[in-house]
Amino acid sequence: MSTSQNKVSDAFKITGNWTLQSKRLQEKFSQLTDDDLKLEIGKEEQLLTKVATRINKGRNEVINIINKTQRETT
Fold first, then answer.
1. What pTM did the predictor assign?
2. Which residues of 56-74 are buried (b: 16+ CB within 10 A; e: fewer)?
3. Measured between alpha carbons, how far is 14 from 37 in angstroms, rounded to an integer?
4. Which residues contact 21 (CB under 8 A, 6 or more apart)?
5. What whole-number distance in Å separates Cα of residue 38 and Cα of residue 73?
6. Per-residue pLDDT tens for 2-28?
7. Integer Cα distance of 25 and 28 in angstroms
8. Which SUPFAM superfamilies match (predicted)?
9. Cα separation of 27 and 7, whole Å?
10. Is the separation of the CB atoms in 24 and 73 below 8 Å?
């Protein structure tokens, strides 16, 4: 089970202008802070966990929200 979870994690990548995307996410979810949305290369999973906890959503739902924001900002 851990292996399949790692494959899912590896498959998720944040693309595009993260600064713009994070601002949009903060507009939609006012409880998100700059620290919650701080993106460090290779630490996307930690960002997902922070955001999921802060907005009380599941990991997959957060991925869908971020993916939608990526599409809206490109």
1. 0.80
2. eeebeebbebbeebbeebe
3. 12
4. 14, 66, 69, 70, 73
5. 18
6. 444 444 445 578 889 999 999 999 999
7. 5
8. Hypothetical protein YjbJ
9. 31
10. yes
Residue whose token pair is 């999921």: 52
DSSP 16: S
The residue behind tokens 């993916």 is: 67
Closest by CA position to 32, among listed 59, 60, 52, 17 = 52
CA distance 26 to 10: 25
User: Could you state, in order of their start, the residue ranges of all structural domains in the chain?
Assistant: 2-72
